[in-house]
Amino acid sequence: MSAALADALAGVLRPVLGDGVVVENLHALTGGASRTTWAFDALTDARRALILRTGPPDDVHASMELEARVQQRAAAAGAPVPHILAADNSPAALGNPYLICDAIGGETIVRRIYRSLDDDGRARLLRQCAQALAAIHRADHRGIGVPPADQLTEWRDRLDEMGDTTATFEWAFRWLAAHRPAPSEQVLVHGDFRMGNLIVDDTGLAAVLDWELVHIGERYEDLAWFCIRAWRFGAAEELGAGGLGSVEAFLSAYEDAAGLTLDRDAFRWWLTVATLRWGVICRYQAERHLSGQTESVELAAIGRRVAETEWDVLDLLQGGGPR
């Protein structure tokens, strides 16, 4: 399969890199539930390290062509993203829709990133994350087909589709619906901006990855998702923003980068939504295992995290949680 895929890749890249392009060292990096990532070298007059992402078309994730358009708009606004060479929603060339971009050096494994950072490095990376989000949110999203999404409705529907719930989840959904803050500006939302989806090198944030959940929504959604407990990866409570620094330091850095003032009460509402979202995701992953759709010890273990997420939701509703 790799040899055939390499030949097909060379054909895709010829209009971009020239007729003499040769593909070498093609190997899969990850194979998730929906999309697979490959690394390879393209040889012309020089060797160029590239990344291929493939996956079947679906109604949940952004198309490859939309991902490409969004990343180009985000790059124009100043966000660090890989340079894209080609993207196509058609499966004709490679068997599935695809996106090809330059490889970016650096680390994505969060615990390794934490070990490499001193206090100054953590503070620098936190500021860079805030600056990257500010750039994404000011990107021009008009005219490229980015869909709107309402997180509270979406995750309520996801939970209902499973036919299973908890008292905590039900109370949280009702409380959130009754106490929703006034809507704020609609912006380009990454949808999964967090540690683990960032490449970090010696200079800090090198690239923002995994744009398949991009949509139009409120900026608070991205800010809150970065600050839920799951994306601290065991870091101390006071490092509530991605395990890098305090939530307040992160929000202040974002305000400086975006040139606006955030509503802390609105952020806290969105932080509760984000935490509840993670709880529903944990329950959904467990359901994939329990239903026999994808038998996996890892998915079953993620299901056990529903209870900790319920605790976090209750803590937020009672006025606790990260500050």
TrEMBL record:
Domain of life of the source: Bacteria
Positions of the Aminoglycoside phosphotransferase domain: 28-242
Entries under Pfam families matching the protein: APH
PANTHER family, alphabetized: AMINOGLYCOSIDE PHOSPHOTRANSFERASE-RELATED-RELATED (PTHR21310), BLR2944 PROTEIN (PTHR21310:SF57)
Full protein name: Acyl-CoA dehydrogenase
